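4.2 Preliminary Data

To establish feasibility before requesting continued support, the project team ran the inverse folding procedure on a target of 458 residues. The structure was first converted into the token representation described in Section 3, and no sequence information of any kind was made available to the design step. The complete token record follows.
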């Protein structure tokens, strides 16, 4: 490595970066001939950080930085390399060697370059890079994942009007990347403040993706080996928790942030969006109603997939702890909105929460005892549907086989989580609107057990 480094020091910045990429290809291609899991050693990481991300190993050495043109040329070289490399294993290990965070001062430069590369890959539809980025999003800490998501949202939903169409087209090119991207943006935009409300173009794109193909949200889960030792701090296996949060919190969050006017006569940011963009036509609430229906459909699909993987009653994709946090956020929002007389929004939010809890428990996506649910929701205002969900279970006859629509008894401890003392309760699914009650648009009725069309995973 020292000989390579001395050779690179004599080159200009772009030439040295190209040479490092060439060295990585030879090095890992050779390793993969002998082992299925190549080792990214310290020396390789140091070469990458010094000659691609320009964090010098030696403080006495002046770093060779690239100008904007050279950086663009390097991005084009990377795009071409990942596109032309025919071996997926080589692509993945080199992408990991380049962009896996190391917890050091090179990470800011690493993340900046990654954002530019993935943004370019979206613009020119480089599927191999999008697939590598999907793997990166799956194994990296959520803090870095939301940073990458923010770069893409800024590039395609904020800076240039209409550019969201370019991002939307990757739906058919790389569904796996789209699934991870949705998970990241729902983690980023948690509706906790006005700045963390998803932009309208982003919301519309995500809703249309999921409505067109509900299985999109399950791609990572269906194609990932499940173990008890999932990496800590990574994104969830599915974006379901974030999507449920969007649906449940949106009536309250928008009520809080959209105010008719302020004391100085100016309107808030969201109010301006609603009244000025597209002639005042950009009402987000119908999109959230459409999304809520899609989420319920996805949860219903999970029942078959969990059973097929022998995970029904053992793996909860909606963790009880995360649901508890969501309920806490809803309660806090309702306390904030009490003076604003948000009765309709509160009722809609609680209806959606009740429906999501009911279907998630029936499908095996949420594993919890009925008593835990009652205790959890006790601080929320009274809601008829939520009260029905928390009421006594309808027990499954012990001699009958499993029937859809019942909450099955849990005899096996959940995979990777401590067992709960009480069995999961049982209740049939009532037909209930998925919930447009307070919208002027027609409602779409949600019927339990009703099949729905969806396209197969590409």
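Position-by-position output of the design step:
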């Amino acid at each position: 490595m020292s000989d390579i480094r001395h050779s690179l020091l004599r080159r200009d910045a772009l030439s040295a970066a190209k040479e490092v990429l060439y060295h990585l290809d030879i090095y890992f291609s050779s390793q993969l001939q002998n082992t299925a899991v190549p080792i990214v050693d310290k020396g390789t990481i140091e070469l990458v950080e010094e000659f691609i991300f320009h964090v010098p190993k030696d403080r006495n050495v002046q770093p060779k930085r690239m100008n904007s043109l050279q950086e663009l040329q390097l991005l084009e070289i990377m795009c071409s390399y990942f596109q032309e490399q025919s071996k997926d294993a080589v692509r993945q290990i080199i992408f990991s060697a380049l962009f896996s965070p190391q917890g050091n001062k090179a990470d800011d430069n690493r993340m900046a370059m990654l954002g530019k590369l993935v943004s370019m890959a979206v613009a020119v539809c480089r599927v191999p890079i999008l697939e590598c980025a999907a793997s990166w999003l799956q194994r990296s800490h959520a803090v870095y994942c939301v940073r990458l998501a923010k770069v893409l949202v800024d590039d395609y939903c904020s800076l240039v009007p209409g550019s969201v169409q370019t991002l939307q087209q990757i739906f058919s090119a790389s569904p796996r990347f789209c699934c991870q991207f949705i998970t990241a943006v729902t983690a980023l935009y948690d509706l906790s403040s006005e700045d963390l409300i998803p932009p309208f173009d982003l919301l519309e794109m995500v809703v249309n993706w999921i409505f067109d193909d509900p299985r999109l949200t399950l791609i990572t889960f269906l194609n990932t080996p499940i173990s008890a030792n999932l990496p800590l701090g990574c994104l969830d296996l599915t974006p379901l928790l974030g999507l449920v949060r969007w649906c449940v919190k949106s009536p309250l969050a928008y009520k809080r942030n959209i105010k008719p006017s302020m004391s100085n006569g100016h309107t808030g940011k969201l109010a301006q969006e609603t009244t000025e963009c597209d002639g005042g036509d950009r009402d987000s609430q119908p999109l959230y109603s459409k999304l809520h229906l899609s989420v319920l459909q996805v949860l219903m699909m999970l029942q078959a997939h969990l059973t097929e993987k022998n995970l029904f009653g053992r793996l909860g994709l909606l963790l009880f702890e995360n649901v508890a946090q969501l309920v806490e956020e809803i309660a806090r929002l309702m306390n904030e909105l009490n003076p604003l007389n948000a009765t309709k929004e509160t009722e809609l939010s609680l209806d959606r929460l009740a429906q999501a809890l009911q279907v998630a428990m029936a499908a095996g996506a949420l594993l919890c005892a009925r008593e835990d649910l009652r205790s959890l929701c006790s601080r929320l205002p009274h809601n008829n549907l939520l009260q029905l969900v928390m009421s006594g279970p309808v027990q499954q006859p012990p001699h009958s086989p499993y029937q859809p629509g019942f909450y099955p008894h849990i005899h096996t401890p959940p995979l990777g989580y401590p067992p709960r003392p009480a069995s999961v309760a049982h209740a049939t699914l009532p037909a209930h609107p998925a919930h447009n009650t307070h919208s002027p648009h027609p409602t779409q009725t949600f019927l339990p057990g009703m099949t729905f069309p969806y396209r197969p995973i590409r």
